[in-house]
Amino acid sequence: MSEVTRLWVPTFSIGRLFDMRVLALALLCIPNLAVAADHELVSPDSLEWKPMPLNWLVGKIPAGAPPVPRAEYAVIHGDPNKAGPFIIRLKSPPNSILPVHWHKIDEHITVLSGIWCIGQSDKIDPATCKDMPAGSYIFIPRRMHHWAITKNSIVELHAVGPFRAYLVP
After folding, report:
1. pLDDT digits over 30-42, tens only?
2. CATH of domain 44-167
């Protein structure tokens, strides 16, 4: 009598097929769970402050409006000129008025020092702006018209780029 070798033949069922799809999907996600090779440490003395690029402002300043202050910015993370998350710090001369504008992106702002007076209207009116002292958090949804008066302040802005401010005529 000859010996018969039995081969293992997998049996498929709907449940097993579903399990295999879940496993395949999980395996595809593993590279996304990898830890970044480097982390970032940024100290205040390592910041490189630069004049805010004029191409961040889109449109014309209305007649009679104060000139746009020469604010400075420092990149903390990412690139505000490209698509993707970024963090920048903005420093404006004291009592500067940032004109009425809006963004295509949501802004998350933390006041790090001084006071940032924020207004939410189509017209600048210092009597209606809200003083936000150091430690304050401000969320400005995309397309919301807003403006600010700086009071010796530095703010940190978190958003997803590219960053542009569209001036309201």
Report:
1. 655 556 567 888 9
2. 2.60.120.10
